[in-house]
Amino acid sequence: MIEEFVRWAAVAWAVFLGAHLVLNGRWWAWLLPSLLPPPLLVVVPCVLAGAAWATGDPVAAVLSGAALVLGARQSGLHPSAPLRKPHGTPGDTAVRLVSWNTQHWCQTKEADPFYAFLRELDADVYLLQEYHNDVFDGTYRLIDDEARLRAEFPGHEVVIARGLVTLSRLPVAATVETAARRVLRVDLRLPGGPDRVLSTFNVHIPVQLRLISPLRAEFYRNVRERAGDREREYAGLRRDVADCPNPAVIAGDFNTTPAVGDVRHIAALGVDAVPLTGRFYPVSWQARAGMRWWRLDWVLSTAGARVHGYRFRDPRGLSDHCVQEVSVSLADPDAPAPSPTRHDREAPHDALPLSGKHRPEGQ
Q1: pLDDT digit string, tens, across residues 250-305
Q2: Burial of 259: CB neighbours in 10 Å, binned 0-12, 13-18, 19+
């Protein structure tokens, strides 16, 4: 009886994984199953393999072993990260950059602790998302807290657009329009000469779903609309990064885990800095207290930008997202370039600034 149960469980998981590998990123409805905590793609086949060994079932053992191998790449696990050495020495010209989804700014929290926490981060560059308030109907409302931002950060230049904020101690060389409508590109001038420019892409990809009953048809219409919206955002962002002539850092809330099919778009943007965290399983978002099981936030770099350190910082209850903190410098022009990242060219689309109230929820 137990052997039969283990075999059918292994078959069921193999069928699920096969559907996941085929449909993930190709069918809008698979956005929902792909929201599972990514380590389950390793944990479940490991448990099944142990049960198959205990019951002596070779069929279940083969199925669970194959599922483990095929699912491991989407698990978000980094077995070698704890052994990874730091990527060079930051040096005096390195820039401390933080990226943080603020969870609707000060809508549900007191402003004074919020701003005190931001100042405590003491970053040269801040890339902040969700500079807006949630309307709880699938839309949000932009806010105006610019006066306080400038008062709290008198040594930083302030750029605000599209529900995103970039603060910089470094001089702003330019703000550049992007094809992606939920991205803010700001080019910064680093010390050492007029040609030392770092482009920053402050990113917030729309979330996959709206928290309404899955028994309503509206729930699935909304998921389908957001899947199309996410695809357009990623296409625009890939074009924006490909067209950028400067070394760049692309950071923010991508609302994408390693198990979501859209991760292929992230891989096309640049080099993922996450191994530098030294964590076996790096996570940045929690559905509720004690459930920080997902990584939705990413930091990527392109040729010429060197990320020396990367860590997630506790938001102290001010947001459901951790703060991403990195040290970045520009590579020596004479140093060999890393392996190039291929960018697929995409046709541009509407790049007008976003209106004060629009879809989707959470940006």
Answers
A1: 999 999 999 999 999 999 999 999 999 999 999 999 988 888 999 999 999 999 99
A2: buried
What would the mean pLDDT of 142-151 be, rounded to a whole number?
A: 96
List 188's β-bridge partners, or say none: 172, 198
How far CA 53 is from CA of 66, 67, 347, in Å, comes to 14, 15, 52
List, in sequence order, every beta strand (DSSP E) within the chain: 95-101, 125-129, 132-134, 140-142, 157-161, 164-168, 172-176, 183-189, 197-204, 248-253, 271-272, 297-301, 305-313, 323-330, 357-358
Please state, in angstroms and rounded to a whole number, the distance separating the CA atoms of residues 163 and 351: 15
> Which amino acid is residue 45, in one-letter code?
P
The answer to whether 104 touches 136, Cβ cutoff 8 Å, is no
In angstroms, the CA 8 to CA 60 distance is 8
**pTM, whole model, 2 decimals?**
0.89
Give the model's pLDDT for residue 91.
Answer: 64
Is residue 355 scored above 50 in pLDDT? no
Length, in residues, of the chain: 363
Residues 6+ apart with CB under 8 A from 4: none
List alpha helices for 56-97, DSSP H: 58-71
In degrees, to the nearest 5, what angle opens at C-alpha 29 toward C-alphas 27 and 32? Answer: 125
Q: Helix 58-71 crosses helix 2-23 at what angle (to 10 degrees)?
A: 30
Closest by CA to 130, choosing from 103, 167, 97, is 103
Q: Is 63 exposed, middle or buried (0-12, 13-18, 19+ CB in 10 A)?
A: buried
Measured distance CA(346)–CA(242) in Å, rounded: 10
Q: Is the pLDDT of residue 345 over 80?
A: no
Dump pLDDT digits (tens) for 203-226: 999 999 998 999 999 999 999 999
Q: Which residue has the tokens 């940045």?
A: 284
